[in-house]
Design goal:
The chain is built from 5 helices and 7 strands. By secondary structure, it is of the alpha+beta class. The chain has a single domain, classed as Nucleoside Triphosphate Pyrophosphohydrolase (Alpha-Beta Complex). It has a 4-stranded mixed sheet, with helices on both faces. Strands 3-2-7 form a 3-stranded antiparallel sheet. A hairpin with an 8-residue loop joins strand 2 and strand 3. The longest helix has 13 residues.
Length: 184
C-alpha cells in the first residue's frame, strides 16, 4: 500500500547535516508551558492480533484520557520518522522493541482535551495513529510491562470489539480506528 505520510529527515539546503539535538525532551515545566500554548504532536498505536477482530486497549490512569485507550505518546525531536517515534513510545511505555517497519499508517486526528497530566488546563494533540499487528506473545509481554505511571497496574490489555467500544461509551476515535482496521 502506498503511504500517505512522509518524514523529511534532512534539510534540502544541507542534506549531509544530521538534524539532532542534545536535548530531545523538554523538562516538565517547559513541557507544561508548551502544552498551554501549542498543539503537541504525538503518535498512537492501535494494537491487534492476527485472526481476531478486536483492538487491544490499556486502561490509562492519567489525563488527558483516563479511560481505555491505545498506547502512544509524544514525539521526541530526535525521532527521525513517525514510525521510529511509535517504536520509541512502545519501548518507553511497555518495554518492548518493535521494528519501525511493522507500523502501518492508520489516521491523523486533532484531539481537544479539557485536562492534562501536567495540570488542570486544556490542551490539544495532533496525533498520527498507526496500526500494529502483534503476536499473542507480544500482546502478553506488553500487557505485563505497561508503565505504572500511565496505566492501571494489573489491568494489562483488554480486548475490545466494536460492540464493546460502543456499549462502554469509549472515545469515538477508537470506533473510527476499529472501522478503518476492520471495514465492514
Amino acid at each position: 500500500m502506498e503511504t500517505r505520510h512522509f518524514s523529511y529527515r534532512y534539510d534540502p539546503a544541507e542534506p549531509a547535516q544530521e538534524i539532532k539535538t542534545d536535548r530531545p525532551r523538554l523538562s516538565d515545566s517547559a513541557y507544561e508551558e508548551t502544552l498551554r500554548s501549542t498543539v503537541i504532536s504525538c503518535v498512537d498505536i492501535a494494537l491487534t492480533v492476527p485472526g481476531d477482530t478486536a483492538l487491544w486497549l490499556a486502561q490509562r490512569i492519567v489525563h488527558p484520557h483516563p479511560r481505555p485507550w491505545v498506547l502512544g505518546g509524544r514525539i521526541n525531536f530526535n525521532d527521525d520518522t513517525l514510525e521510529i517515534a511509535a517504536a520509541a513510545c512502545l519501548k518507553r511505555e511497555a518495554a518492548i522493541i518493535i521494528d519501525p517497519t511493522r507500523f502501518d499508517f492508520l489516521l491523523v486526528a486533532l484531539y481537544a482535551w479539557h485536562q492534562t497530566k501536567q495540570g488542570d488546563f486544556p490542551c490539544k494533540n495532533l496525533v498520527t495513529t498507526f496500526h500494529l499487528e502483534i503476536t499473542t506473545e507480544e500482546r502478553d509481554h506488553i500487557a505485563s510491562a505497561l508503565v505504572e505511571s500511565e496505566y492501571l497496574v494489573g489491568a494489562g490489555l483488554e480486548r475490545y470489539e466494536r460492540a464493546r467500544l460502543i456499549e462502554e461509551n469509549c472515545h469515538d476515535a477508537l470506533v473510527r480506528m476499529y472501522d478503518l482496521i476492520y471495514p465492514n
